[in-house]
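The freezer alarm interrupted the setup, so I double-checked each line after restarting. Inputs confirmed:
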Amino acid sequence: MTRPAPIVTDDTAVFWDAAAAGRLVAQRCADCGRFRHPPRPMCPECHSLAVEVVDLSGRGTVYSYEILHHPQHPAFEYPLLVVLVDLDEGIRLVSNLTDCATDDVRIGMPVEVHFVPVGEDATTIPVFRPAAGNAGGGA
Amino acid sequence: MTAIVGIGATEFSRQAGRTELQLACESITAALAECGLTTADVNGLVSYTVDPVEETELVRSVGFQEINWSSRVPYGGGGSMGVLSHAAGAIKSGIADVVVAYRAIRARSGATRFGGAKTSPSPTSNHAGTTAMQWAMPFGVLTPASWMGLNSVRYMHEYGVTSEDIGRAVVQVRKYAEVNPAAWGYQRPMSLEDHQNSRWIVEPCIHLYDCCQETDGSVALVITSAERARDLPQRPVHVGAAAAAGLFEQEIASDFYRPDLSIMDGSVALAARLFEGSGYSRDDIDAAMIYDAFSPILLMQLEALGFCGLGEAKDFIADGNLALDGALPTNTNGGLIGEGYIHGLNLVSEAVRQLRGTAVNQVAGAETILCTASRTGAILTTDV
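Predicted 3D structure, all chains:
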């Protein structure tokens, strides 16, 4: 069984379509330059509707984490490591941490993106692993 | 000013064996009966956006004659106390005279268990305040516990809070539940050791016993003007202040995108609305009913509401302040953890019982009680 596929709407397709192509992107206001995530039609800072889609570095740090034990969904392996990642560009994502023992996750540890398959139609979504040189370590 | 003049409830169970519509009918007619009002007196209705009971079916079943105002509060349980500000506003404006607030739920036996793994969320979520869950579900974040866990772990990290610290709050509310015949936790003692030995739901913040009880049942409140309340049989419980505060990027349960997740800043803003200019101060509060869907947010709300400093809830609790002889007796029915989860509304009925002097765990001389659920809240009082 595969992971639950993302819900793709006209407002959110920009993120998931890029992820399906192995790219991590975010919206950035074309007028004031403010990044925003989750995607939305208007810049909450300046109300501009003009938007750029920007490729992100895929690097960040763990802002928070949790280890899920119950209930268990057949698509995932448990205990399941979930993280909030603060990306270098100032955006926060909910994701998973792979290639890391549950005992080794730390708030502040540097991580980098990679992509895993989900859903029926072989799309991919972004997850994270300890950044090169920081495997299993962290701040 | 407005007042709660009647409360009603069904039994709280894990298998009601009847529909939410029927549960709502039962709690509403019980609430009307105890305050001597009839369906002909009621002309306002308020519930939650997520409540499954259709107003038309409710009106048809209970036999309301003419409804002049109705409303629903968004944001799920975080909006639960919002039924009080909605009702009070409608009555004060003159749009409604007698309002019934209700919530009917089959959180345990219904089609979707609250704590079950949800994998097909609607992108609009029925105004539950959980649209951003669509950004979490592909990563296995499928339950309320897993939404709240990320905030809770950051909170624990920031202030050095342990699972045992959180467990002490659970021990206290379960002590209250142990003697409350309406509670799931009635005659079920639980020690800190039991808490620590219960299995992990979300490590390292939420053991099984940190979770509220998924419950079937319904609670209803009858609210009218203070003037009319004086002529009714129950001791009026006045809505001294009622407020809501939803912040930029705030969601329910998950506030993933607020800058500092170690503080429930929606509750900080709520407390400012409730206390500043209302004539009430924290010193006036004799007891508190605080939304405890999961125990970590009980600690976080105590801090955000200003009853102790940031990071100090663990000490406030360890010092016994949530007990009947403490500074702030809290969730004296057992809370949502010990009594049951009627999505927050059973905390309001407990506040009413306290202020009438009829609670099982009665706070001596209680005159003013704070009820809060993250972003919504009210100060209820007999002292006007």
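Quick read of the result. Residues 2-111+212-381 of chain B form a domain with the Peroxisomal Thiolase; Chain A, domain 1 fold (CATH 3.40.47.10).
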